[in-house]
Design brief:
By secondary structure, the protein is α+β, with helices and mostly antiparallel strands. Helix content is 71%, strand content 6%. Among the domains are: 136 residues, no CATH class; 187 residues, no CATH class. The protein has a four-stranded antiparallel β-sheet with strand order 2-3-1-4. It is rod-shaped, with a radius of gyration of 65 Å. It starts with a helix and ends with a helix.
């Protein structure tokens, strides 16, 4: 309870002291307030007026749905706006506008090009407008400040046109670059696909008959060849049996005819040569069924047959010559004097034997050819797994190249459609929603705002002046201040003796204070009203 009383007493003391200060220093406070306000408000009438022209540019989305035509440019509008702003606010672009409109030419001191560019960048303002829900950029404001409202409007229009044209140019250029890049990649993919196709075709040509899709036909052909081989072998065995049978008959006929023989029992003359040929041909047929024509023993037997045939031809020629030059009686030459009717079976058997030998040789050659073909098809079948693996690897590379080519082809078509959409101005574009405004009043200085600012400055100045005067004033102005300095309590007080002159001075001071207060507030109110009406 005691602390609350002391706190209330302190507050009453502070309030009373504050009231006392105001009563003593109200004129200084009002004068400081007035001059602070007058300084700020008056300066607003000497500052050069700046007019600000603003236009609103709307960001319109593509008219074509993305489900039909997907844009092929950067969708980050903020990055694109930043890039476009840097290009438009570049030194070259701004100098073109400065020279066109003759900006910053009326100053007392001429500005360098860099100074004019820096000043124009400072006077230009770009403000983004975002959707409050998803913070997407829906529009942006372009503003330009100038001492001439018409110049501000003209420059804002130039900047607006530059933004709209540059956005269209940038989007179209990006779209064309994207399409060109995809076209280059497609050409490379087409070349790669052609190379893969050529490799597959070359591999298939080099392994014709060994491909996986030919396995079934190879098996069917192999089965047919094996069946044909069995038929040929059966026919060869039959021909050999016929040959043996014909040889036995021929031997029996010759035995019955009593052909001339040597001491060892072997026939001589033409019969001996025929028998030798039959023996050699039989041997050749037997060797041919087991070996090829390049086998040495086969070649040797063929040489012997050729030699025997040559001897036989020579013997027949000699016999004909002897028959023409010398008459022979019956029985003189058993070889030539024989009855043709008796030799007819022998000749027929010899002809049959020769036919059997030819058939054996043909069958043997056919069997060898069939075996070679069978070996070839068996080799094809044995190589098919490795060929299939190699072809699978080639086809996998071809399929990858084909998929890449198809994907790039689709992307190229989509990109070309997107480029056509950008060229037709059907993509995302900037539209000037509000034309550049013609400012009717200056944007700076705002004299009504400067009235408020001057009032704040005046109050701060008055407080500082009063605080300074109180700080350097060492007089005591109340009995409480005196009591606070005394070490003992006050027993009695001497009342203040007020004369008539003191009363007059007090009244004059009060009137003067009210007059100053009325003047200050009327001046501030009048200045604020004038600023409002003027603006």
């Amino acid at each position: 309870m005691t602390e609350e009383v002391q706190e209330q007493a302190t507050q009453q003391f502070d309030v009373a002291r504050f009231v006392g200060i105001v009563r003593r220093r109200h004129i200084q406070l009002l004068v400081s307030l007035f001059f602070g306000w007058l300084l700020v408000w008056g300066s607003s009438w000497f500052l050069p007026a700046r007019y600000k022209s603003t236009t609103l540019i709307l960001v319109e989305q593509p008219t074509m749905p993305k489900n039909y035509v997907e844009p092929n440019v950067n969708d980050d509008l903020q990055d694109r706006l930043q890039s476009i702003s840097q290009q438009i606010l570049s030194r070259t672009r701004l100098l073109v506008i400065i020279d066109k409109i003759h900006l910053y030419r009326n100053g007392r001191q001429p500005l360098t090009p860099d100074e004019m560019v820096a000043k124009m960048r400072k006077d230009t303002d770009i403000e983004l407008v975002r959707d409050p829900q998803n913070q997407a950029i829906t529009a942006f404001n372009i503003s330009f400040s100038s001492s001439d409202p018409y110049v501000a409007q003209q420059v804002t229009g130039e900047l607006t046109n530059l933004f709209i044209d540059e956005n269209s140019r940038v989007r179209e250029q990006e779209s064309e670059n994207t399409t060109q890049f995809i076209s280059d990649q497609l050409a490379s993919a087409r070349s790669s696909l052609a190379d893969q196709d050529a490799k597959v075709r070359a591999f298939e040509a080099a392994h014709e008959g060994e491909l996986p899709d030919e396995e079934q036909s190879n098996l069917q052909i192999l089965n047919g060849l094996q069946q044909e081989l069995r038929n040929e072998q059966d026919a060869l065995n039959a021909a050999k049996q016929n040959q043996v049978y014909t040889q036995s008959l021929l031997g029996q006929y010759r035995t019955a005819q009593g052909t001339e023989r040597t001491d060892a029992g072997a026939p001589t003359g033409l019969a001996g040569v025929d028998e030798q040929l039959e023996t050699l041909r039989t041997k050749l047929a037997d060797l041919s069924s087991r070996y090829t024509d390049r086998y040495p023993e086969v070649q040797e037997v063929k040489a012997q047959i050729a030699k025997a045939e040559k001897e036989r031809v020579q013997l027949i020629a000699n016999l004909k010559r002897d028959a023409d030059t010398k008459d022979q009686g019956p029985g003189n030459n058993p070889q030539t004097a024989a009855d043709p009717a008796e030799n007819a079976p022998v000749l027929q058997l010899q002809s049959q034997l020769h036919a059997d030998q030819l058939e054996i040789a043909n069958r043997t050659e056919a069997i060898n050819n069939l075996k070679a073909r069978i070996n070839d098809y068996q080799m094809r079948l044995s190589q098919e797994p490795a060929v299939e693996q190699q072809l699978s690897d080639l086809n996998r590379g071809y399929e990858q190249s084909q998929a890449n080519y198809n994907d790039l082809l689709k992307k190229e078509n989509d990109s070309q459609m997107a480029t056509s959409m950008e060229q037709m101005q059907e993509g995302e574009r900037f539209t000037m929603l509000d034309p550049p405004s013609l400012p009717l009043k200056p944007d700076f200085p705002n004299r009504l705002e400067m009235c408020g600012a001057g009032l704040g400055v005046g109050i701060a100045l008055g407080v500082l002046v009063v605080a300074g005067l109180e700080f350097f004033d060492d007089r005591l102005h109340s009995d409480k201040e005196i009591q606070s300095l005394l070490p003992v309590a006050v027993i009695a007080e001497v009342p203040e003796i007020v004369t008539s002159s003191d009363l007059r001075r007090g009244k004059m001071k009060t009137v003067l204070g009210w007059a100053v207060a009325v003047f200050v507030f009327i001046a501030i109110f009048a200045g604020s009203a004038f600023s409002f009406l003027h603006d």
